[in-house]
């Protein structure tokens, strides 16, 4: 199998699938005009409109159709930022996205696998299962093969695609037809420069399935000793854990006298685009990934034909051998493995990572910031060595200090910052966060009232409430609800009561949701000895209860997810 090249085979198979789609699929264009006969009476038109709207709510588990129905009820007109129609824009953007290629002066060289190298070999069952899981609504890639075709023909295509995937892995060659096209998506409603476009990759759906299978294998090969403060792509880890760990470190330290905390929120410039593949492969080898797989990843990242596609205009093709694809399922995982050795030098400092969101937490004693400042200097040096560029405009620092003054001078600090979706205030109070949550939840109640007015039954309204209102109220709730003020808690509970009156059913209170989530999270942490918070849970001599965290102030105690287990 390894004697054949996967590129011609892949191109032939995808071309044949496209031909079959063209032969079988019938496309019709129907034009409907406002004055088209036969005209419909007003009563009939209203009945048809009502029937069409109610059709969106037949399946309470289909949130997409429910949102489409809500948009029809509220006459919602979606306005998305559009790209400039300038014909020269695709080529200009392509040159802009390729700017980091000139800075990559490290040649990509594959290593010779040892004789005992265990090559990844995919099974037909795994490929078939992945094909069946494709979303039928997923947009086609450059090969114009629809997700629905791959999903419904999984049994027929699984064998041949398994052969192609295994040939690719054995040869350590990714077929060119499986590589990328760029579709720029505006980041802002008003675009003023090239940096306001986000380069989203548009790859073949077949390649997306391939990358999912490879990603699952990589995750099983990673050592358990990987940096515990990297919370992405780790089992039993989420943004909840990253925020909780950061807050616990800060509050535990602030519980001591004469202390304060400095938090540096790092922002990178085009983090994925600056990755040097050869540096990444060297780190993957040190982590224990076999040589054949490392060679495949190296080929995946290098020699990529890139073109920018805007509307009907396509740029010239540029071949790149630097960076990782934005929008690819593999890229965030590869970035976390690249940064796995970015760890704190001093015991008083901690580096919290969630993909490319990096935060340096400095625990300062007696106004001695030397260790913290040395840590920041070392981090800057590490970024230079690994070709990651700090964005000064995105990088922010927050000082958490409960003292009134330092050396007689007031501390100048930023008011708050959004950290992994949660608003952190300089005094670690949660009023800005709960205000933001309340505003968003109240906006969703408007849609709930519209659905009630349209006489939809309670089960459908309950599904909508849990998916769009309760999910907002309970987002990262274990990190902030414990230290909320009584006023903020009543404000949040008032939203729940309003939803109960609209629908006519009872829902769990915010306090009950918080307690349930805390117990679930704490139970998972206790079962996971690799979790950074595992050491916080120690049993009392009786073996029936857990030891409470000792603290001088109430802020640290109430913020802990251990509290529900103690009560």
TrEMBL record:
Domain annotation Reverse transcriptase: ranges: 166-424
GO terms, molecular function: 2-oxoglutarate-dependent dioxygenase activity; methyltransferase activity
Top-level taxon of the source organism: Eukaryota
UniProt cross-references to Pfam families, sorted A to Z: ALKBH8_N, RVT_1
CDD domains from the UniProt entry: RT_nLTR_like (cd01650)
Name of the protein in its database record: Reverse transcriptase domain-containing protein
Organism: Electrophorus voltai
């Amino acid at each position: 199998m390894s004697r054949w090249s996967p590129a011609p085979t892949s191109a032939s198979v995808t071309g044949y699938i496209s031909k079959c789609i063209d032969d079988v699929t019938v496309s019709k264009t129907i034009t409907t005009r406002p004055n088209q006969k036969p005209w419909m009476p007003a009563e009939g038109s209203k009945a048809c409109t009502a029937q069409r709207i109610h059709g969106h709510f037949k399946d309470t588990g289909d949130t997409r159709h429910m949102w489409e129905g809500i948009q029809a009820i509220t006459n919602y007109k979606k306005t998305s930022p559009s790209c400039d129609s300038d014909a020269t824009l695709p080529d200009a953007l392509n040159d802009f996205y390729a700017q980091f290629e000139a800075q990559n002066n490290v040649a990509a060289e594959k290593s010779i696998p040892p004789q005992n190298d265990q090559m990844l070999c995919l099974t037909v069952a795994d490929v078939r299962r992945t094909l069946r899981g494709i979303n039928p609504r997923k947009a086609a890639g450059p090969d114009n093969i629809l997700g629905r075709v791959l999903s419904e023909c999984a049994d027929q295509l699984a064998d041949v695609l398994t052969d192609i995937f295994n040939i690719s892995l054995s040869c350590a060659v990714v077929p060119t037809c499986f590589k990328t096209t760029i579709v720029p998506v505006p980041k802002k409603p008003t675009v003023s420069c090239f940096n306001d476009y986000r380069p989203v990759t548009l790859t073949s759906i077949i390649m997306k399935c391939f990358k999912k299978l490879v990603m699952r294998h990589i995750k099983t090969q990673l050592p358990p000793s990987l940096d515990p403060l990297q919370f992405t792509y780790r089992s039993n880890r989420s943004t909840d854990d990253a925020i909780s760990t950061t807050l616990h470190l800060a509050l535990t330290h602030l519980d001591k006298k004469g202390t304060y905390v400095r938090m540096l929120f790092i922002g990178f410039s085009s983090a994925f685009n600056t990755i040097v593949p050869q540096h990444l492969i060297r780190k993957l080898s040190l982590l224990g990934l076999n040589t054949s797989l490392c060679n495949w990843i190296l080929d995946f990242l290098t020699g990529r034909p890139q073109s920018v596609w805007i509307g009907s205009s396509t740029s010239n093709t540029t071949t790149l051998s630097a960076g990782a694809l934005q929008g690819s399922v593999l890229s965030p995982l590869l970035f976390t493995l690249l940064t796995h050795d970015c760890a704190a030098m001093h015991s008083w400092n901690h580096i919290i990572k969630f993909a490319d969101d990096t935060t340096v937490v400095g625990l300062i004693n007696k106004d001695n910031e030397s260790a913290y400042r040395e840590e920041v200097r070392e981090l800057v040096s590490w970024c230079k060595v690994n070709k990651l560029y700090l964005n000064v405009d995105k990088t922010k620092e927050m000082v958490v200090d409960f003292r009134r003054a330092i050396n007689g001078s007031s501390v100048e600090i930023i008011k708050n910052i959004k950290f992994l979706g949660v608003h952190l205030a300089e005094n670690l109070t949660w009023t800005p966060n709960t205000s933001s949550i309340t505003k968003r939840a109240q906006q969703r109640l408007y849609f709930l009232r519209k659905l009630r007015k349209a006489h939809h039954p309670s089960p459908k309204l309950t599904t909508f409430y849990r998916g769009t209102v309760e999910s907002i109220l309970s987002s990262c709730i274990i990190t902030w609800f414990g230290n909320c003020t009584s006023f903020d808690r009543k404000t949040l509970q008032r939203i729940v009561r309003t939803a109960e009156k609209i629908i006519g059913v009872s829902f769990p209170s915010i306090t009950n949701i918080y307690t349930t989530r805390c117990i679930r999270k704490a139970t998972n942490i206790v079962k996971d000895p690799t979790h950074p918070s595992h050491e916080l849970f120690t049993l009392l001599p009786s073996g029936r209860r857990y030891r409470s965290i000792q603290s001088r102030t109430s802020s640290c105690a109430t913020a802990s997810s251990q509290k529900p287990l103690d009560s």
